[in-house]
Design brief:
By secondary structure, the chain is an alpha+beta fold. The chain is built from 6 helices and 5 strands; from the N terminus they run H-H-E-E-H-E-E-E-H-H-H. The strands form 2 sheets. Strands 4-3-5 form a 3-stranded antiparallel β-sheet, with helices on one face. A two-stranded antiparallel ribbon has the order 1-2. A hairpin with a 6-residue loop joins strand 3 and strand 4. The longest helix has 57 residues.
Length: 223
Amino acid sequence: MGRGAGPAEPAALELPLPAGDSGALRMWGGIPGICGALRMRGRIPALLGLALALASLLPTAGARRSQDLHCGACRALVDELEWEIAQVDPRKTIQMGSFRINPDGSQSVVEVPYARSEAHLTELLERVCEKMKEYGEKVDPATHRKSYVRVISHDGTKMDLSGVKFDGDVTSSLKFACESIAEEYEDELIEFLSHEAENVKDRLCSKRTDLCDHALHIPHDEL
């Protein structure tokens, strides 16, 4: 009766050397080249892990940039609407109601102030985002959050433009975001601006729409 088989020998490490002739080692740069290839193999998982970690940060940074843009566009939109409303002569009126003749010969028509009327606000929403071409982008050095400020004042006073970026990319991005907000939140904008109210920017852009979920922690003059 023969002896039992001993423990299995560990499998030999097979290197992917080119088959064929005795110059295979030379093709790999000799033994040092093979060792270098093995060391590089060990680094690949670490490098891959680092790349994946960096890639995971990109969506967060992109989301923050998008939020800063849409928050800034919302607040600029409200500012421009309120400024436009203030320019309307308070004596200007518009007729509201039905123009049909009642049985008694009268009409159910009333005159209301034009400013803040639905007709006025609807007309403003169609063109107000053109004002975004008068805004620039400012980056907070501490938080790296972006805000958007006027580079041209309404009344012609000189503006402090230190640290403000003003170019076609900024204005076109802000205008596109403004138009998207004006379209998506038209009913909310008309609701909030149909009468005088305080802190419309915070109430609309932060609380009602969540476009500025960080805005309540930032002083108003920084937004």
